[in-house]
Amino acid sequence: MKNVLRGRRTKCLVASVLTGMMVLGMANPVLAEGEAASEDAVTVVYNSGMDFSKLDLSGVYDGEINWVGYAENELNQKLMLEMTTGAKSFDICIVPGFGSKMFGSLGMLEPLEPLEDMDDIFAGNKNQHMIGDTIYGYPITGDAMMLYINTEMWEAAGYTEADVPTTLEEYREKALHLTIDSNGVRGDEEGFNKDEVVQWGTMFKGSATNGTVWEMATLAYSNGGAYVEKDYENNTCEVVCDQPAFVETLQYVVDMYNEGSIPSGFAGYDYDEVDAQWMTGNIGMYITWPYLPTKAAGSAIDGHIAVYPLPVGDSGKGVTCLGGWAAHVFTDAPHKEEAIKVAQALSSAEANYRFVSYQGSPSARKSVVERLSEECAAAGNDLQVAVNNAYMVSAEDGLETDIAMTDAAAVDAQTTSGQYINMAFTGQLSCQEAMDQLKAELEQIFADNDFMQGN
Amino acid sequence: MSKNYVSKKERKDRQFGFLMALPAMIFLACLFVFPIIYSFGASFTNYRLVGNKGIDFVGFKNYLAAFRDPNFYNSLKVTVIITVGSLAVEFFFAFVIAALITNVKRGQGIFKTIYLIPMMVSPTVAGLLFRFMLNDDFGLMNAILKNTGIISSNIPWLTNEKMAIVSIIYVDSWLTIPFIFLLLYTGLASVSEDVVESGRIDGANRFQIFWRIQIPIIKPTVLVALLIRFMDVFRIYDSIYVLTKGGPGKATESLSVLIYRMNWNKYNVGYAAALSYIMLIIMIAVSLIIQRVSADKEDSGRRRRRVGGN
Questions:
Q1: pLDDT grade, residue A21 (50/70/90)?
Q2: How far is A228 from chain B (nearest CA, A)?
Q3: A275 contacts in B (CB within 8 Å)?
C-alpha cells in the first residue's frame, strides 16, 4: 500500500512539474529566448539590412539598448502586429517616412519635440517624418536620386563631359545613341535591331513593386506630375496620376523601352537585378539612389562611373522623391522617457556620422555629408565626393514621396500603384488606361483608410 | 476471466497517461482549432488591422463582396489555370518517368536518385534559381534557346502575362514531378509480376499491360497523389512570390497571393478571412468531386461486372 501511495505521489509530482514547466514555457517564450536582454534596456526594432546593432554610441548614449532586427520586407508587418496586439515589446522603431505618417496618424507614435539643431537636417527629410507641424521621427538617413553615367560607354559613343544630359529629352536621345545591337549598330542609326541589343542606353526598375513607384515619382515630379495632391489645410486630397504630366512621363519610359534603350526584362526586375545589369557594364546611364558606387565596387563598372545631378524635366527642375529612415518612439513604449533620449542620440550628428561612415547610407544631416565629403576628398575618393555633392543638390530640391506618405493607406497605395504602372510597362493597358484605373483604385483605398477625406 | 479484463492498476496507469497527455492535447487543440474558429468568426466582421473604428458583425457581406470583386475572379482564374496546368504536366511526366524506370533493370537506383533531387530543393530556392534562369536579358534559358537557333528574340518568360503563368507551371512541375513519380513508381513496383506475366501470356503488349493492367491496379495511389497535389497546388504561394510577386500587373496573382495582399496590404482581415474560407470550400468541393467521380466509376464497373456475371 505504501509503495502504491509513494508511486502515486511521485507520478503526481512529475506531472505537476512537467505541466508547470509547459505552462511557464508557453506563457513567457521571450524569457526563454532572450536571457541576455535586459528588461530595463530600451528596445529598438530596425531593418536588419541597416545593421544598427554595430553602432557605437559611446559618449552619445551610454545606457543599454536591445537591438531587434527584421528584414525590410517583414519589418512593417511585425510592427503592425506588435501595435495592433498591444504587445509592448518595443520602445523605438527605425522606419522610413511612410511609417512616420502611417503609424503617427494611427496614434501609435509619440509626438516629439524638435531637436536643438533641427536646421542641420535637410528640409525634405524633416518633412517626411512629420504630419502637419507634429514631429513623429528624428531623421537618421536620407535618400535622393542622381544620374550615373558609365564613362566607358560614354566615351565610346564619342561623348564628353559637355554632353551630359541636362534635360529628360536629352537623356532619352543619349540613351538611344548609347544603345548598341549585336552588329555594333547604335539605336539611332539605320539598321538597328532592337531584338539583338547587347548594350543598353539606360535602365529602369519596372517590376510590380514599391520601388518602381518611387522611380516613377522622380521622373513625374521632374515633369510637374504627382500621384496625389494634398491640401493639408482642408485635409483633402486629389488623385492626379491620370493627368497628362504623369501619363506622359509613364509613356516616356514605355517609349524608351519600345525604342530598345531599356532591357526587355525591365518590367520584371527588382533592385538587385537592375543593379546587377548596371554592374555588368552594359548600361549607359542610370537614375537611382546614392548607394550604387559602393554596391558596384569590384564589379565590371568599378572605375567607370561618373555622377551628376538629375536631368531637368518639364517643371524646370530635376526633382527627386526622397527616402530616409528615422527613429520613432511608440506611445505605449515601456521605457518612454529613456526611449526619447535614445531616439535623440541616434539622430545626433555624432551618432549619425558614425553610423553612415560604416553603413554607407546618406545622412539626413548637412554637416555629416560635408564632413564625409571632406574626408573623401582628403582620401582621393572623388567619386564619393561627387555622389555627396549630387545628393546635397537633390536632397535640397527633393519632395516627399507623395504616394508613400498616405498614412494607413501607404502600403496598399504603393502596391496598387506598382501593379498598374507595371501593367502599362507590359502592354496590358495603355498608359492612360492604367492611370485611369489606378486613380479609381487609389480613391477607394484613401476612402477605406479615411485618408484626407475632409473630416 | 474475461480477455478484456483490465486491472485496477492498469486502469489507473491509463488514466495517469491520459492526464499527462491532456495539457499537450489541449494545447494542440487550441493551436489547430482556435485559428480556424477565430478566422471563421473574423470572416463575418469588418475587422481591419488599422484604422478600424470597432469590429462589427457584417453577416455575409465579405463573402458577397468577393463575388463582386474583379480581383477575386482574376485570382480564381489564375489559380485554376495553374492548378490544371501543373497537374496535367506533373502527372504526364511522372507517369512517363515511373513507367520507364520500372522497366529499367540496371542502374535504376541512380535514375531514381537523379529524378528525386528537385524534391530536396525548397520552393523558395528553386524560385530564385529559376528567376535567374528565366531572366529575359541574361537568363540561361533564353541564352540556350537563342544559341541553338530555336528562337531569334528573347522570350519574356516573366514579363508577359501568359508566359509568366507558363513559367510558374514549369517551376512548380519541376519541383513536384519527383513526388508524384515516387508515389506512382511505388504503386507500379507493387504490381505483382504474376499479373503482368498473365497479361503478357494473354497477348497484351507493353502499352496495354501498362494502361489496362498496371494503371487500374494503382488507381487508388493515383487518386491519393491527385488529391494531395490538387490541395497543394491550389494554395500555391511561394513560387509565385519569388518568381513574379503576382505580376506582371496582377497576371499571376493566385488566390493565396490575393489573400496575402488583402490582409497585409489592405489590412482587411475580415475580407481576407472570407476569401480563405471561399478557397477552402472550393478545395473541399473539388476534392469530393474527384473522390465521387472515381468511386462512381469503380462502383458502376463493379455493378456491371456483377450484372454480367449473373
A1: low
A2: 19
A3: none
Whether residue A146 contacts residue A293, with contact meaning beta carbons closer than 8 Å, is answered with no
Q: What is the architecture, at CATH level 2, of domain A3-142+323-381?
A: 3-Layer(aba) Sandwich (3.40)
CATH 1.10.510.10 fits A146-319+406-448, yes or no: no
Q: How many CB pairs under 8 A join A and B?
A: 107
Listed in order, the ranges of chain A carrying CATH 3.40.190.10 are 3-142+323-381, 146-319+406-448
Residue A50 has pLDDT above 80, yes or no: yes
- Residues in chain B with CB shorter than 8 Å from the CB of A74 are none
Written as nine digits, the cell of A328 is 520613432
- Domain count along chain B: 1
Q: SS in 3 state form for B169-223?
A: HHHHHHHHHHHHHHHHHHHHHHCCHHHHHHHHHCCCCHHHHHHHHHHHHCHHHHH
Rounded CA separation A138/A131 (Å): 13
Taking the Cβ of residue A74 and every Cβ of chain B, the question of whether any pair is shorter than 8 Å is answered with no
Whether A265 and B159 lie within 8 Å, measured CB to CB: yes
Domain-embedded: residue B106: yes
Read off the C-alpha cell for A406.
498616405
Assign residue B252 the CATH number of its domain.
Answer: 1.10.3720.10
pLDDT score, position B210: 85
Please report whether residue B110 resides in a domain. Answer: yes
Of B27, B245, B267, the CB nearest to A209: B245
For residue range B48-88, what is the model confidence (pLDDT) as tens digits?
A: 887 666 789 999 999 999 999 999 999 999 999 999 999 99
Domain of residue B122, residue span:
60-300
Question: pTM value?
Answer: 0.84
